[in-house]
Amino acid sequence: MGILLKPIDIVDNISKDSFVNKYLNTRKPLIIKNLARNWPAFTKWTFDYLKDTVGDLIVPLYDSSKADPSKPINASAGEMKFSEYVDLIQNKPTDLRIFLFDPIKYAPQLLDDYRAPKNLMGGFLDSYPNMFFGGKGSVTFLHYDIDLAHIFHTHFHGRKKIILFENKWKDRLYCIPFATYALEDYDIENPDFEKFPALKGIEGQQGILEHGDTLFMPTGYWHWMKYLDGSFSISLRAWDKSWLVKAKSLYNLTLQRKFDDIMKRNYASTYMSWKEELAHKRADIALSNSKPK
Fold first, then answer.
1. Pairing state of beta strands 9-11 and 30-32?
2. pLDDT of 54 above 60
3. What is the pTM of this model?
4. Half-sphere exposure of residue 29, counting CA atoms within 13 Å on the CB side?
């Protein structure tokens, strides 16, 4: 027995009542094939179009190396002109990714090219869409989003593999204390169960996104993503109605992140080593207690 992964539910279309009752209220992931088919972006957002629109921007790049414990979260590995990066990911595999890129700040006409699915739910943060780009083979490390929003993640021009876990598995996933990401020392597709025994028997879901597919990812879901082709995505975010979730989001974004940055800055590798040891201890305890129930 290893990691148990079931397919993510897939529909072509869905009504608001079905979406709310079966997925939003139950916080269950879903892939919607036709949600973005009527967006102008579905045909308009080619690599060449984006190069023409924001190609001169210098963008931060992220690679697959383990995070430097002395640097704040989301510290980049380097930078490159956007047009040059797009050429790179179209022509060869690379582990370089663009993370949380918001081209709409520089090209507001892009706002007209997509539609938040307000016919399914409310609470969208219309001013804060994020885009993500990756080369073939690049990987987004296992984490959950710090603001705890619901995510509608639409993919373009290629394929992306997705693995998801409910937040209840976070200790068994070796969650780093005071952070929203897991240890970067294991491969979720092929984990070493001798070194990471708590991963054995955890339950998740997986699926493949193709051009125009939209993943609904409920608040707090852990996600790992692998670009099977050079491609890109946009994430539209919506608040959960729960005030408890909103309070936890505020805590994550302020007190927890500030504390973590201060400790990294002052204690660097010592602090990170302590956190990694604690992640292992919490995982072992959760496994021995058969948690989550």
1. parallel
2. yes
3. 0.94
4. 25
Taking the C-alpha atoms of residue 271 and residue 53, their distance in angstroms, rounded to an integer, is: 43
How much helix, strand and coil, in percent to the nearest 5, is found in the chain? 30, 25, 45
Query: Rounded to whole angstroms, how far apart are CA atoms 137 and 159?
Result: 11
Per-residue pLDDT at 68: 59
Three-state DSSP class for 49? Answer: helix
Strands 130-134 and 231-238: antiparallel
For the cut 60, the answer to whether the pLDDT of residue 70 exceeds it is: no
Answer for the pair 95, 64: CB distance below 8 angstroms, yes or no. Answer: yes
DSSP category for residue 68: P
Are residues 146 and 108 in contact, defined by beta-carbon separation less than 8 angstroms?
no
pLDDT digits (tens, 9 = 90+) for 124-141: 987 768 899 999 999 999
Q: How far apart are CA 24 and CA 14, in angstroms?
A: 12
Domains, the chain, with CATH or none: 4-288 (2.60.120.650)
C-beta of residue 7 within 8 angstroms of C-beta of residue 165: no
C-alpha torsion 112→151→147→81, nearest 10:
-50
H or E element that contains 284: helix 257-288
Q: What is the rounded (10 degree) CA torsion for 25, 26, 29, 34?
A: -50
What percent of the chain lies above the pLDDT cut of 70? Answer: 97
Tokens coding 217: 């990812």
Residue 260 to residues 31, 146, 223, 246, Cα–Cα distance (Å): 34, 13, 22, 20
